[in-house]
Design brief:
heterodimer; A: 208 residues; alpha/beta; D-Maltodextrin-Binding Protein, domain 2; 2 domains; 6-stranded mixed beta sheet; 9 helices; B: 320 residues; alpha+beta; BirA Bifunctional Protein, domain 2; 3-stranded antiparallel beta sheet; 11 helices
């Protein structure tokens, strides 16, 4: 029996669809109401949780496998897991975005950057040897420049339509984001065959 | 301030009450066996210079250390590891030849708040200094075999890796991105990585297989066919030799993708696992170059049990 934690929402839908395409019996999941823990006929035990909590459960060995976005992994301070497979779904990217004038603007002060991903933002500007002030926003980060709180934002961009609707544009792409399959290090040792079976099933998708 | 009287700082672990007698029993059993094998118990100081750990480049971040500035204006940290201070002890005592130390005590590593992590780890371990090569490795394995049953866990798996294999592989691959891919066992990134480089076919196969090259001794025999490098082959032959000579074949497994937890490992690396612990219950390895930092050339190997993890695993194992 493998215990799995899946990020609720978009990733949950995509991963369950993928598993179901691969012949896993996802009926109990598709018909779930508000249950948070579900067992399938194929011996998968699943919990559905918020992205950061998927990592927390994996860290404590509550689950063996987690499905979570690269964005969450990059912004976390916990890295003691195996990041074994890129599922090639939920693709988007991290970017700096701002009003077009930002490109030409010369700052005689510390820039202010709004982001939900403070670590990613900090690391990016550190690499560029730029000292900036990071302000954490929990959602609709685009509001930062719109209300005049920040000069730019660091966020994940999927289609860019929200940016566009608010007059913002991508200044620079930072890195790619997609859904990853992560594995608890001790679990991999005790459940090698089961976990690699799951990997093999999910991997084929890449070639299609 | 009245209410604070009842709280403990978030860095603290909860007082252990229910299983202290069990913990002490394990500790005493271990101590008896260590001492029987001529390991001298050393009570190590709790404070060390941050610079000692930094100079040794052990791979534990400074931010993990509980630090303060002392009267000299130097930074002092609560002990984060036993191996480095014991290596210093050996050198400062101007010891020559074989020396056996054992220790029982806590190490302290800062953790982020509200993650359910612990900052204190109770360790019990040994350092065998001045005994090189297979003879030292075997003594260490023998000691693990004899002490494993003291832990009272029903299922324990001992795993061996090779830092020699790892270092040689990094040298051949010669691309700094490789370490990160191997650490994460990222199959997708490994595939891209191999396609980007023009390694020969056997090397390509080796790299693609590496993330799953762990398990019983058969994985070593399988991977041997893919390897045409003398040093890589030698390091695998060493593991096989140790396996044959170890007399603990039933619980010994291997992992060629193991990366050094401590930067100072040079030869075999050891880990112990329980299915009821999300982290290894034992860590160890050979470190033949650590004492170069003291301008000494001393071969050494050591391992330590993490009694905090073991106690938790025991509790979980009993629940099942």
């Amino acid at each position: 029996m493998i215990k799995i934690a899946i990020t609720k929402g978009r990733i949950e839908k995509q991963v369950c669809q993928l598993l179901s395409q691969k012949g896993y019996d996802m009926e109990p999941v598709l018909h779930k109401d508000r249950e948070l823990l579900i067992e399938t006929a194929d011996g998968l035990s699943m919990v559905f949780a918020k992205a950061n909590d998927v990592l927390t459960f994996l860290e404590h060995g509550i689950v063996d496998v987690g499905f979570v976005g690269k964005d969450t992994l990059e912004d976390s301070d916990f890295h003691d897991y195996y990041e074994m497979l890129d599922l090639n779904i939920g693709k988007c990217y991290f970017a700096v975005a701002a009003y077009p004038e930002y490109r030409e603007k010369v700052f005689h002060r510390r820039q202010r950057i709004a982001s939900k991903y403070t670590k990613v933002a900090k690391d990016y500007f550190t690499r560029k040897q730029e000292d900036v002030e990071i302000i954490k926003l929990e959602g609709s980060v685009e509001l930062g420049p719109v209300v005049g709180l920040s000069d730019a934002i660091v966020d994940i961009v999927e289609t860019g339509s929200t940016l566009k609707a608010n007059g913002l544009e991508v200044i620079e792409k930072i890195s790619d984001v997609s859904t990853k399959m992560i594995v608890n290090k001790v679990s991999l040792k005790f459940k090698k065959d089961e976990i690699f079976h799951l990997i093999e099933m999910l991997k084929e998708e890449e070639t299609c | 301030m009245e209410e604070f009287k009842y709280l403990i700082p978030e860095e603290s672990i909860d007082a252990i009450m229910s299983n202290v007698s069990k913990l002490r029993e394990i500790e005493n059993d271990l101590r008896r066996i260590f001492v029987e094998h001529q390991y001298l118990e050393v009570l190590m100081p709790s404070f060390e210079y941050v610079d000692l750990y930094n100079d040794m480049d052990i791979g534990i971040d400074e931010e993990k250390m509980f630090q303060y500035m002392n009267y000299e204006g130097k930074r002092v940290a609560l002990r984060v590891d036993f191996t480095v201070p014991l290596a210093r002890l050996y050198c400062s005592q101007k010891e020559e030849g074989e020396k056996r130390y054992c220790y029982f005590g806590k190490v302290y590593r800062k953790e982020k708040r509200h993650k359910g992590r612990s900052s204190e780890f109770f360790q019990a371990g040994v350092e065998l200094l001045g005994k090189a090569g297979v003879a030292g490795d075997l003594e260490c394995l023998q000691l693990i075999k004899e002490t494993m049953s003291c832990l009272k866990l029903k299922t324990i798996r001992i795993e061996m890796g090779s830092a020699k294999f790892y270092h040689r592989l990094c040298e051949i691959v010669d691309d700094e991105r490789f370490v990160d891919i191997l650490k994460r066992r990222d199959l997708t990134a490994m595939k891209d990585f191999v396609q980007e480089h023009s390694f020969d076919t056997s090397m390509q196969n080796l790299l693609m297989h590496l993330p799953q090259t762990f398990g019983g001794v058969e994985v070593l025999y399988q991977i041997q066919n893919l390897i045409h490098d003398d040093i890589l082959n030698e390091s695998i032959a060493e593991l096989i030799h140790l396996y044959e000579a170890s007399c603990m074949k039933d619980c010994l497994t291997f992992d060629l993708a193991m990366t050094p937890m401590m930067k100072y490992y040079t030869g075999i690396m050891l880990k112990g696992y329980s299915p009821y612990s999300a982290e290894p219950i034992m860590n160890g390895g050979r470190y033949d170059q650590l004492m170069n930092h003291f301008h000494r050339q001393v071969s050494a190997i050591g391992f330590s049990y993490d009694l905090s993890h073991i106690l938790k695993a025991l509790e979980k194992e009993e629940e099942v």
